[in-house]
Amino acid sequence: MSFFRKLIKSIWGTPPSPPLLRKEERNIPWTERERELQLVRDYKPHKDVEHLRILLYGPPGAGKSSFINSVDSVLRGKIATRALAAAAFGDSFTIAYGTYKIQKGNPDTFYPFVFTDTMGLEEGTEGGIHVEDIKLAISGHVKEDYRFNPKCPLPETDPNYRSSSTLDDKAHILVFVIRADSVSIIDGETWRKMKAVRAAARDKGIPQIAVITKIDEACPEVKKDIKNAYRSKHLNQLMQKVNVNLGFPLNCIFLVKNYHKEIETDNDVDSLILSVLKKIIDYGEDYLNDQDDHDRSPMCEGERK
Prior knowledge:
34% helix, globular, 305 residues, 6 strands, alpha/beta
């Protein structure tokens, strides 16, 4: 170390570590938005199903509904707000089981994938969705528009319970959504609930990914430039925390900025969202291709045991 550097260090101490990594931890094709968009437009499920079903879950205010709206915005080229989302987080804003299609071209044509939104997972037993209800949704037993009851899971005797589910009714990929500024404050009980959901999906061989939202609010460098997402040391640490606490492989954890205050779409924000959507489709399609003909016919889960 030179005399000058030693002198500076003795006066000012060790300089703070830079907030950004030298290069991106993950390569995002920032300049290839149209090509990525076309890959999504060209997607068709290989199996004999109407659509790929993407099931979202996570804490209240994580950005599940906003993520659906953001994907809708990217694919349609305009800001969409069809999935109602709250402006701030607290109690879960989504209270009913809802499936969202995204229009493709004319009003009668839709993309061959759908998003299923669920109530948020909360601490305790007085609020939020029951883990058992998420398991039922995974297996296709929850009917459309069922209003989740925080006090008890959906019973088999309820008219909203679908006793026989087809492959179309079941989830083909699970997407865990959490906002960046809440990763470090989630309580232990909620982590345990989320692990229980992961275990249920794992036992059925269903692929899973994690999406960390609100990254621009968690890191000033990302707020300055969204392209710093995978260079941010802070966000990299949050990915590591989700990896350790829930067991998601790092290559199954993604960073996203949802549209929430914009009135026009942005190419770089689109590129981040498309990078996630492509992997969701890839992993979900792999799951569909692994299913045999027996899974296509209507049946109760108990009949498969």
